[in-house]
């Protein structure tokens, strides 16, 4: 094996590489130092950007920055970087939660501002546009918050500069609550609910007739609604229980009648069997009599057989009579059950009839209520359309009725309502109609009444009520009424006629009350 000798070219290349190696190392080291310096500057700037959000993280970053510039070996910083990474990650999660809460509060505050009464339309539009926009960066979120605060400032400024409007709104709210109280106490009198719920509702009505606070009116309204719902539910359950009981009784009677029918069928078959056996016995006796005097004749044996058969038939017939008496008793029991069921059904029918009559009567004054008025008005309107005879509608309102309640109490007020209603009724003809329209208002219908008749009726009502001898603790309670009246004409319908009568009543009250105005 011969040893190879290196060529001159290979020797030259090796010599050149050895000559250039220190230069390459120097360039690589210089490049590494530049990259480390760039990395340190980037890390320093990132640290400066992240500083100020968390004290513990800030301290760690400061220490890391100091060591970063003094460290010769970057790899020695890796454990510190791992600690800082965990702390920054935790801080990031906390910041995201805070950002989520901030966005929720942003929308909640915006919706709250939207519900403020009396804001200008432009401000509301700006607010809607702001809430509709989405914020994709911290800068946009900050701008949205600033914008929302500006809108809040505008709203607060507007509210602060309109105290009179706010006062007027408060007064308006009080009037609305007062009307709610009036309507509720009228509703309670119209419902006429019995039992404990009825007593509690009457107590609520007594409170509503006094000057109660708005918050109390709201509370009483909720209590009244709850009582009305409970009473309605109780009535519904009672009706359901009655129907269920009727159904059970009918099913039981039906089953008993089915058994009685089967029993009667069995008795009929048994009677047919007894009749057949009796016929056979009679035939045997006749046959034996026909053999009399012949060798085949055996009267004694035939008589014995006939007697045995007749005795058996008699016993079976007695058993059938016992079964028939049991069937009669069952049928009599069924008849009693049917009679009892019919009586209960009639009681329920009378109860429903009473409820229907109560539905059309005002329980306090015992005249018709608004529901009955609507039915009667529609009926009289159709008659007027058909025959075109004079048809007058009038609204009667007791003057200063609230003062009567406040001065003498609701009991005197209720008594006055009853007396006024009875007085109006007594002044009407048999063909006329009166209903309590609500509160202290009554509506009367005067069909087929000429000018003299309707004028006389209304004047009599006004005069008679004015002379009523109503007293409370020896003090006379003066009662007068204002009346607004009108006639159906041309293409009238009930609604505009009622509105005209209300306008006439309004004029009568503004003109001093205790008078009759035609419209």
From TrEMBL:
Residues 1-15 have a biased composition (Polar residues). Transmembrane segments: none annotated. Its EC number is 2.7.7.65. It comes from the Bacteria. Signal peptide: none annotated. NCBIfam families: GGDEF. This is diguanylate cyclase. It comes from Salinivibrio costicola subsp. alcaliphilus.
């Amino acid at each position: 094996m011969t040893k190879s000798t290196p060529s001159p070219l290979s020797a030259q290349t090796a010599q050149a590489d050895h000559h250039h190696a220190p230069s390459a190392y120097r360039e690589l080291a210089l490049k590494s130092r530049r990259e480390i310096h760039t990395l340190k500057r980037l890390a320093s700037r990132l640290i400066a950007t992240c500083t100020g959000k968390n004290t513990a993280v800030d301290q760690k970053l400061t220490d890391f920055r100091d060591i970063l510039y003094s460290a010769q070996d970057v790899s020695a910083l890796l454990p510190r970087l791992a600690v800082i990474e965990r702390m920054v990650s935790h801080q990031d999660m906390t910041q995201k939660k805070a950002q989520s809460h901030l966005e929720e509060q942003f929308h909640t505050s915006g919706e709250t501002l939207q519900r403020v009464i009396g804001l200008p339309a432009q401000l509301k539009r700006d607010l809607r546009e702001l809430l509709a926009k989405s914020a994709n960066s911290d800068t946009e979120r900050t701008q949205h918050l600033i914008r929302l605060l500006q809108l809040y400032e505008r709203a607060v400024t507007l509210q602060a500069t309109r105290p009179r409007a706010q006062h007027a709104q408060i007064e308006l709210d009080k009037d609305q609550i007062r009307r709610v109280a009036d309507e509720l106490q009228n509703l309670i009198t119209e419902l006429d609910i019995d039992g404990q719920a009825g007593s509690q509702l009457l107590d609520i009505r007594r409170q509503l007739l006094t000057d109660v606070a708005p918050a109390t009116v709201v509370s009483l309204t909720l209590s009244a609604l709850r009582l009305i719902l409970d009473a309605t539910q109780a009535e519904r359950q009672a009706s359901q229980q009655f129907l269920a009981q009727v159904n059970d009784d009918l099913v039981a009677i039906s089953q008993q009648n089915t058994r009685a029918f089967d029993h009667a069928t069995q008795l009929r078959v048994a009677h047919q069997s007894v009749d057949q056996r009796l016929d056979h016995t009679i035939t045997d006796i006749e046959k034996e009599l026909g053999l009399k005097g012949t060798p085949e004749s055996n009267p004694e044996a035939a008589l014995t057989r006939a007697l045995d058969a007749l005795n058996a038939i008699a016993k079976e017939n007695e058993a059938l009579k016992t079964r028939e008496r049991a069937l009669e008793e069952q049928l009599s029991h069924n008849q009693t059950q049917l009679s009892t069921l019919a009586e209960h059904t009639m009681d329920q029918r009378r109860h429903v009839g009473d409820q229907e009559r109560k539905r059309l009567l005002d329980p306090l004054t015992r005249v018709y209520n608004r529901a009955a008025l609507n039915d009667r008005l529609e009926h009289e309107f159709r008659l007027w359309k058909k025959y075109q005879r004079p048809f007058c509608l009038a609204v009667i309102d007791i003057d200063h009725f609230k003062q009567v309640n406040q001065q003498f109490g609701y009991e005197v007020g209720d008594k006055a309502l009853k007396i006024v209603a009875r007085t109006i009724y007594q002044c009407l003809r048999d063909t006329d109609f009166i209903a309590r329209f609500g509160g202290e208002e009554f509506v009367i219908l005067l069909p087929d009444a000429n000018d003299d008749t309707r004028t006389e009726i209304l004047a009599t009502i006004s005069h008679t009520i004015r002379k009523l001898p109503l007293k409370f603790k020896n003090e006379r309670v003066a009662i007068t009424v204002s009346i607004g009246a009108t006639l159906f004409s041309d293409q009238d319908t009930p609604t505009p006629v009622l509105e005209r009568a209300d306008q006439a009543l309004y004029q009568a009250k503004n003109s001093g009350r205790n008078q009759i105005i035609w419209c």
